[in-house]
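Dear colleague,

Following up on yesterday's call, I've attached the two folding results inline so they're easy to grep. Please treat them as preliminary; we haven't cross-checked anything against experimental data yet. The first protein's sequence and structure tokens come first.
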Amino acid sequence: MATTAKQKGSEKWKTKQWFDVKTPDVFGNEVIGSIPASDAKSAVNRVLKVSLSWITHNPSHSFLNVGLRIDNAVNNAATTKLDFIENQFSYLHSLVKRHSDAIYTYDVAKSKDGKNMIVKLLLTTRNKSPYSKKHAVRLELSKYIQEFCTAHTADEFVKSILSSEFQGEGLKRLNKIVPLSKFEIKRIELKG
């Protein structure tokens, strides 16, 4: 009995096709690996979680992960679109220090090209701050995110995150309200 089950499993494995997975245009459309699938249709909509530093070859991106959703598979090649970018929990957890505050935010925005985005951020203050200041930071941050997203396409927004332009501008703007030590991406999700 056991040998029959093993043979069936191995025979099924032999029928699988391998698809070369390409990154989205924003990351240069390069092949980053291969996945097995019984056919092209079953490969579509899979989400691959990959370290961003593996794609960009930039060590400063080593704590960031990206989710790449396969949107098309033809002739043993699978193209992807960006589903999410997130920082590793262990990295974010290490940023919160004693005698400081962590401000977690959640905003929904629409890019210039009409893509809906969920933007989750973590800000850390240099010192303990009163609730009124943290509330003012959240309001100003929501305003900043809306302005930035409507002025940029989704790809431009992702590039600004990778170059830290988005974080730098935000830090400069919010430091006027309360001194911040970190402005980090918790998770960005792209919809549609």
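Below is the second protein, in the same order (sequence, then structure):
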Amino acid sequence: MASETPFARIRALDVRLLAAIAATLLLVIGVMWVVPTTPNSNSFTFDTARRNISNARPIEFGKPVEGSIVDGSDTDFYEVKVQNPARMDVHMSCGAANLIPALVIFDASKNIVQEKTDEYVRRPGADIDFSFLAQSNMTYYVQVSSQRNTTGPYTLTVIVRQP
């Protein structure tokens, strides 16, 4: 038996063992292919700006703000402070025909004041317009996101007028 060739020894091995070795090699090669090997690959940073209410970006009334939803988990928060009771008009225009918009307004206690999501699922690229009565000396938060993992640019405008 000692005179067997190396090829004969390999043929005598169990096929499951060979399959396990091949699968391991493919897995290692696949991971090495996917893992980035750039100079910055060891210093990945996650951009948390505007991804939650505590990082909300303040916006001015009547001044359009441009943003972009870059992936399905992306969400932008904006902060709006109202001094006197007023009617707040919110307008979001989609900059991409495939973006399915979602817009939610929260009060300072993080309660939902207004939500515009379900009616836009079948209308990708649609603009959102609505208004609500804002209370005096109150901070509101506008959450802009997308539905069904769509992405694209948008423009948000908040206008305050007399009720």
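For the second protein, one point worth flagging: The two ends are 97 Å apart (CA to CA).

Best wishes,
A.L.
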